[in-house]
Amino acid sequence: MDLGVDFLGHSIKNPLMNASGCWCDNKDLLDDLLQSEAGTFVTKSATSEYREGNPKPRYIEVPLGSINSMGLPNLGIDFYLNYSLEFQNNHPDDINFLSIAGMCMEDNLSMVKKIEQSEFKGITELNLSCPNVPGKPQIGYDFEATERILEEVFSLTKKKIGVKLPPYFDFAHFDAVSEILNKFPLSYVNCINSLGNGLYIEDDTVSIRPKDGFGGIGGAYVKPTALANVRAFYLRLNQDIAIIGCGGVESGKDMYEHILCGAHLVQVGTQLMKEGPQVFARILQEFNELVKSKGYESLKDLRGALKSM
Ligand code: YRO
């Protein structure tokens, strides 16, 4: 089957890519993604300046997934923007995603301005798990702050912007967030970021050093939550807002389920960290066999086609 996707007018050779934060924080890792079978890629969430991030160990793999409290280690917006500009010069028909997660509103707005003033033709992903005022939850869980940041961002740029959302668990929250997102000319939403502040214990001890062991959960643990969020937003958002699915994708079947729920593109995080960039070729092959056996002739027929009982 032809796995090409038309994503907001850009043609992408297949729907698979990395999840932000995974295999994308420096030039060598990003170059590995370019060499892989992934259809496109997203860079590590950037801040205005370089950040060392939290003390290690800050990421561990566990049998059913991963836990992390990386603390936003990144090379700063200039590096990821320059990498993206060089990429588009060398691959004029392709696009990539540039993720930003400012440490405060000003930080986000100055990065958006910088991107606006550049020749960047790809899509900016605003990570709504970025810090809010101390004592408040992350922006994505503070609906007034979510609306405020989107108002500010869209007042500064005409370029394409998507948002990375944390997982939501309540229909009232799906409704409230969708109502806000539908007010803006958003390109897409990406569901989901890691499931916040889990705790993994080994030998009576927490398994990562920062934050007394609390960290974001990824992998098989989060797939049902990820699929629910993809589906919930697919059913509520304006038709012209695309969906990226992220969470628990280890196999062609997982990728298939995300698209069935409404995803246009599908991201691989924990499994990419476990297996390396060869993961994309394997999942794509498994996906291809599965859609063929199910009798689908195009991705368009599959997308959103989840059946009710
Ligand atoms: O710790 C991280 O850098 C991190 N880990 C995640 O699983 N998701 C994220 O969005 C981030 C970066 C943003 C933040 C959680 C550190 C505020």
Notes on the protein architecture:
This protein has 309 residues and is α/β, with parallel strands linked by helices. The chain has a single domain (5-54, 72-196, 220-302), classed as Alpha-Beta Barrel (TIM Barrel). The model has no long low-confidence stretch (mean pLDDT 98). The chain is built from ten helices and 15 strands. The longest helix is centred in the C-terminal third of the chain and has 16 residues, at 279-294. Helix 3 (105-116) packs parallel to helix 4 and helix 7 (252-261) crosses helix 9. The two termini are 28 Å apart. The chain has a seven-stranded parallel sheet with strand order 3-15-14-9-8-7-6.
Concise structural overview:
It is built from ten helices and 15 strands. Helix content is 36%, strand content 19%.
What's the SSE blueprint?
Blueprint: E1 5-7, E2 10-12, E3 16-18, H1 27-35, E4 59-62, E5 65-68, H2 77-90, E6 97-100, H3 105-116, E7 123-127, H4 143-156, E8 161-165, H5 171-181, E9 188-191, E10 195-199, E11 201-202, E12 205-206, E13 214-218, H6 223-236, E14 242-246, H7 252-261, E15 265-268, H8 270-275, H9 279-294, H10 299-302
Parallel strand pairs: 3-15, 6-7, 7-8, 8-9, 9-14, 14-15
Antiparallel strand pairs: 1-2, 4-5, 5-13, 10-13, 11-12
The protein binds ligand YRO.
Residues 21, 45, 68-72, 101, 127, 129-131, 193-194, 216 line the site of ligand YRO.
